[in-house]
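Side project, low priority. Logging it here so it doesn't get lost.
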Amino acid sequence: MGKASESKARLSRRSLLLGGLAVAGAGAGGYALMSRPKTASAAEREEMLAENFRGVPYWWDELGVEPPSQGELLDNVDFLVVGAGFSGLSASRTLAAHGAKVLVVDAERPFYGASSRNCGFFGQAFENVDDISTPEGRAYFDEFLASSAHLRQLMDEDGIDAAVRYGRYHVATHASHFDEMKKSTRKLHDSYKFRYDVIEPGEAKAFFNSPSAAQGGIFMPDAPFLQPARLSYGNYLGAVRKGAHIVGNTRVVDIEREADGRFLATTSRGKVRARGVLLAVGGYGAPDFGALNNVVPVHAYHIATTPLTPEQMASVWKKPMTMNNSKTNFEIVIPSPDATRLLICGRTGVRYESTEAMAVDLCRVAREMFPQLGEIRAANGWQGIFGMTFTHDKHLFRDEEGVLYLTGDNGSGVGRMHWLGHKAALQLLGLPEGKTVSAKSEPPPTFPLYFGGSDWFVPGAVAFYDFKDEFNF
């Protein structure tokens, strides 16, 4: 496989990536304005941040358990899994359940990365399926349903309380967006038969009280969301109970095939021999491996507010739900499991000089969204990094030496990456049940404009899409 690469690329959400060629006109000005990290003054930090502000995911605080530290490294196993996120832990659970001796290593602590930092959306994500009347589209959709069922079964079997709740409101930022959303939702419904409600502009304030949501939107009452750190920790405990050995703070720097057909992995803490190897890495780990050079790490920013009163929370919505708007560079709102805080995700692609500066900026966004809440503050601020591929596909493939790779969550990995981790394990075991249509069996294709590990085009892209969102063209 060769030595680890030094690529450190960072980029924004999927829409920004594909628009690189469209931003040439705004590029020069955008680069000058956006490439300089955004700062926050001492006065702004004092006004916007809680006195006990923490630069870690709120999900970790709510869980009450931080990711575990490193354990003992095993030197000879049946299977080595690199990456202790959703997919790696799912794979190790399946391998161990089949009686294999499994070692999982992660460069950070287990479930430190995107698996415990995301928004927790799963289900009703019909990406990459245009027509389920075709055999290919039907097979893909059937696996989508199977992946959601697999995750629910896993949570039931392992007794994971991930605080699963329901309700997603897709808000129209402009009046023209509302008409387009109604048409596209009707078309989706004809294929997928899911429940939805159209919230007309005249009903919008009573349903979701925000000036930015006045144009109405589409509400999906059955769309689930969960607490990702609870799920990640449950995955960790479930894999350990099955017999997997999980070690953190252990970076893999090289993997080679030996003469006897086994693999020799060199890590920061020693060498490991294994019959098979799975690299289950996304935005955090992909840049370290040459076969994944075309997986772009994408930064997503989050804050959690300080606790709000029941009256304040009731002023936001008819009932707790998640919200995402129709901007290209969109925002997301999520209620905490106890419905006392708002979690805000947004400002993708902006450069910040610190976590505090990012939290100040997102707190400003939250105040603009919900002026009725007064001077709310951020109690937590953090970023998560997911792995983006050019075609938005997930990829499960082998390199020329036989190492198996699983990557490309593309910001929608809660259900699918558990499923594909399970499928990857079955492939390692040589079982026919490992076949899947949910991932491509070849490496991710090259990203236009992305070379040398440089995200040089991002500032112009961000400037262009912010301008596009503001003036709706």
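Brief comment: The longest strand covers residues 270-280.
Revisit when time allows.
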